[in-house]
Amino acid sequence: MKRILFFVALVLGMKTTFSQSAKAAYFELGGPGLASFNYDTRFTKKEDGIGGRIGFGGFSIGGAGAVFVPIGLNYLIGKDGRNYFEVGGGVTPVFAFDNYDNGDAFSTTFGHLNFGYRLQPKTGGFFFRAAINPVFGKDFFFPYYGGVAFGYKF
User: Fold this and answer.
1) List of residues 6+ apart from 45 with CB closer than 8 A
2) pTM for the whole structure
3) Residue 70 and residue 52 in contact, taking contact as beta carbons nearer than 8 Å
4) How many of the other CB atoms lie within 10 Å of CB of 108?
């Protein structure tokens, strides 16, 4: 519970601290959140440069499931104010549960990288992103994992 409150405080802090920067809200299928809703902001008033994202997603199948909370930093590189190359990385805490057997639950984390394309209009509007997201943990590495996202930039 303390972790969840920390993540909520982090999102609210990002929103108030960077209120004058470019922001986007989007749904991502694949990526470090599996199927997640995300909030992205720039740390400066520019449309490109360094920024961050936090999301909330997961799945549930027959009483078992997991919650993913992707958190990351990213850097946008672009010249036309609309098309960007995005590079970044972060960590994704995972909270898993099983309501059937004996109510087992566990938490873990994994790291992720991000290399992709982002369509982000300068004045706001439809947001699109496609990326390769290598994921890695203590005993695994999946270099060819990816995701697509659709949302709104404001």
Assistant:
1) 20, 21
2) 0.83
3) no
4) 12
Distance, CA of 21 to CA of 149 (rounded, Å) = 20
Question: Where would I find the beta strands (DSSP E) of 1-154?
Answer: 23-30, 35-42, 49-61, 64-68, 71-77, 83-98, 105-119, 125-132, 135-136, 141-142, 146-153
Largest CA distance in the chain: 55
Q: Fill in the amino acid letter for 41.
A: T
- Which two structure tokens, joined as six digits, stand for 40? 């992205």
Closest CA to 41 of 54, 30, 31, 28: 54
Task: Could you please state the CATH topology (level 3) that the domain comprising 2-153 is classified under.
Answer: Porin (2.40.160)
Q: Which token pair is 94?
A: 């995972």
pLDDT digits (tens, 9 = 90+) for 13-43: 555 454 567 899 999 999 999 999 999 999 9
**What is the Cα–Cα distance from 1 to 30, expressed in whole angstroms?**
26
